[in-house]
Amino acid sequence: MASNLSRRLAQNLKSDNPFRELSMFFNKDGPIWLTIRSLVKSLEDQKVNYAVIGGLAVYAHGYERTTHDCDILLSRADYEKFMAKLVNFGLKPKFEGRKKKFVFTSTGVSVDVAIEGEYPGGGSIGPISFPNPKVCQQNIDDMKVISLPKLIDLKLASHQYRPVDRAKDFSDVVELIKILKLNQLFSNLLDPAVRNKFEQILLGLEEEKQRMSDNDE
User: Fold this and answer.
1) Which domain of life is it from (predicted)?
2) Using CA atoms, how far apart are residues 173 and 140, in angstroms rounded to an integer?
3) What is the distance between the alpha carbons of residues 10 and 3, in angstroms, rounded to a whole number?
4) Which domain holds residue 77?
5) What are the backbone dihedrals phi and psi of residue 64, each rounded to the nearest 5 degrees, phi first?
6) CATH code at 155?
7) What secondary structure letter does DSSP report for 163?
8) Region 158-184 average pLDDT
């Protein structure tokens, strides 16, 4: 999947210096970006439809925070194609017998797969499931990324199911609201199952803003 040049680049980009790693990440350099770019190219070469989700999708939509892995969404049909054409050709299972957690062999970066119809936050049945990527993708930086409304749907659904373990999902939504100045009108684009939660966050942020303003007077 990755060329010999890419392998050498990946090896050179690895560092024990956390500040250098952070700098590379925010410059869209280093193992994570090399992995997602190589993976996206391979998916598109093999005509595997996908959407980038997780931390890289959050980054693509405007909240520039780090992540340590690459997450992709596949339809059930494309998952079979992914397993046949990409696994063992640049990707290998992270653990024996695991079929949705992989390692990109040239960089050592984890690649996690979500499949259409599964449920965010641990797999239990809920009102929101992972959609077919064809209906929720947009092009950002030469990648197919999950749309912002659907990303927030999944983040809030995941947090509702596992509020402690998935606290980062809630934090991502809060930061996206603040950075993108999302408002009540945006909530109309969300699934009804999480719309009320989104509006509660908006109200909480507005109340905090008012308290800060009162304290400054």
Assistant:
1) Eukaryota
2) 19
3) 11
4) 4-216
5) -85, 80
6) 3.30.460.40
7) T
8) 95
Cβ-based neighbour number of residue 141 at 10 Å: 14
CB atoms closer than 10 angstroms to residue 34: 22
Looking at residue 5, its pLDDT comes to 40
The string of DSSP codes covering 37-77 is: HHHHHHHHHTT---EEEHHHHHHHTT-----SEEEEEE-HH
Q: How far apart are CA 91 and CA 165, in angstroms?
A: 27
Judged against a pLDDT cut of 70, whether residue 84 lies above it is answered with: yes
* Token pair recorded at residue 23: 């700098």
Give tens-digit pLDDT for 180-215. 999 999 999 999 999 999 999 999 999 998 888 777
C-alpha distances out from residue 141 to 3, 28, 44, 47, 171, Å: 21, 11, 14, 19, 24
Sheet holding 69-74, edge to edge: 91-93, 101-104, 109-115, 69-74, 51-53, 143-146, 137-140
Name the token pair of 7: 């392998």
- Pairwise CA distance, residues 58 & 60, whole Å: 5
d(CA 11, CA 22): 16
Q: Which among 46, 47, 69 has a CA at the least distance from the CA of 57?
A: 69
Q: Whose CA is closest to 54, among 124, 154, 127?
A: 154
Number of structural domains in the chain:
1
Q: Which amino acid is at 104?
A: F
pTM, two decimal places: 0.88
pLDDT in tens, 7-45: 545 454 555 677 777 788 888 889 999 999 999 999 999
